[in-house]
Specification:
Pdz3 Domain; 429 residues; alpha+beta; 4-stranded antiparallel β-sheet
Amino acid sequence: MSILVALIILSVLIVIHELGHFTAAKLCGIKVLEFSLFMGPKLFSFKKGETEYSVRLIPMGGFVKMEGEHEESDDPRAFSNQPAGKKALVIGAGPFLNILFAFIIAGIVIGQTGFYTNTVNKLADDSPLKEIGIEVGDRIISYGGKRLFDPPADISIFMYGEDGRPKDITFFDVSENKKVTKVITPGKTETRFRLGFTATDTEEGARITDLEIDSPLEKAGARRGDVIKKVDDTEVKSTQEIIDYLNVSRSDKTAPVDVTVDRNGKILTLEDVKPFADFRYTLGIGFRHIKGNVFEIIKGSFNYSISTIRNVLISLRWLFNGTVSYRELSGPVGIIGSIGSVVETEQPVGVKLLNLMYYTSFISINLGVMNLLPIPALDGSILLILLIEKLRGRPFPQEKVGMVTMIGFMLLIVLFIVTLFNDVPRWLF
């Protein structure tokens, strides 16, 4: 069931992407030869006007085929014969519709669940924000020069990439009725010993839902779906009990532990699992959560979309500068696995549906942003070529554009293989 749900979600998002290209092409008067649902061999089709509408065998994605898209054409309505502005509109419409769809879906979720504002509603006793005069009720505007759009998500990703150096923080002081900028040094959480997993607490115990790359449990052979039953000789029934055993109960917290798991009814013992000491930077802050009116919901959805776009770009930068490893790259298998985790989590149907919608909006934004990157074979590379054509005053030969696209497809295949090597052991075994 989880795989079917994942395939449906991915297919819907890709079809929406292609629908953006299709609609823009039609509006611009470009000749569209085919609009296909799914890929592979053709199952059936029908023709309406000049466009063939088809359904293909492999239930994944879809495509739009335009006259003169990858070759020269004498047809005045061919894509290759259109001005740069029309071409850019058609190419950019796909990613734009993905982002617009995410905005709409996020708005529906926010309308049901509410959203976080920039208003401080909680400060930890040791929060560094207290030292500079921030109080409950003040509004945080920016941190490190970056505006907060979705405060919890933004602060979380800022803290992940934190280096501990002082940063500027701008906030609105309600008591003084003015905007203030001060310098703050982020605090550190208490050092905790971890095994590198996340879990959902069930009646059977803590069921592993994710394993960190190169974590002690992953290296010991743990898998997603395993239920942790014991740590050493101590029975544990929840994630908190595991945390308490690792950090409170033991005198030697650095010593390896044996972890007993239930894997589909088979009891296994993972031996000599060595916990690692961990801390993170923190601001010790909580934000007010509200359910707003329709205008506030629209604003909340907009802020969520902008925040997610920016955080995707930050994550890509981390990938290139080595902050995160290429091993954390995930592809279709990983996406299917993540969606499957949501489907299989024990929670009310309504909550599960909202979580799936939220995850769908996140994937849709990722799809839109990734397609705008100037990588050959992606929409962003075509937009870049169009910009260069505009600046140089003459078009690139279509053959050269096709060659660049082919190289891009080869690079994407390599990337797909890399993600398979990351995802298959992580999700299927």
